[in-house]
Structure to design on (123 residues):
């Protein structure tokens, strides 16, 4: 019992760490952590064949008249939520061609040669 409690606690901390690494917005981080915890709990309790049957039934009944409006609302809700998530910052690295790479390598080798000569001269 004690070991399973420790494992559960460590798993929750791991999920929290992953969500904090990927998302800087704490509200979204909390929601993602709760979503992961809820889905893990459902997968633990409900057998996979029932989950798969539910997903297949949902997939094939999406276009029925009585569900079409509800599915459209749900998809628009998901799109709105996705748009509220801030984009991750992107760092653009400068272009490096073979010529610039060889210039950097020759500069590094000349610096290393100078350091070696200085070390010999100091001895």
């Amino acid at each position: 019992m004690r070991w399973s409690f420790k494992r559960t606690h460590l798993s929750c901390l791991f999920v929290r760490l992953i969500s904090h690494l990927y998302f800087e917005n704490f509200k979204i981080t909390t929601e993602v952590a709760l979503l992961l915890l809820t889905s893990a709990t459902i997968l633990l309790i409900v057998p996979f064949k029932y989950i798969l049957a539910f997903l297949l039934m949902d997939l094939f009944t999406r276009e029925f008249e009585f569900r079409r409006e509800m599915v459209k609302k749900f998809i628009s809700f998901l799109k709105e939520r996705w748009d509220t998530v801030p984009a991750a910052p992107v760092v653009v690295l400068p272009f490096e061609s073979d010529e610039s790479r060889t210039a950097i390598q020759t500069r590094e080798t000349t610096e290393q040669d100078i350091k070696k000569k200085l070390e010999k001269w100091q001895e």
Summary: The chain has five helices and no strands. The chain has a mean pLDDT of 77. The CA atoms of residues 82 and 108 lie 46 Å apart. Residues 1-45 form one domain.
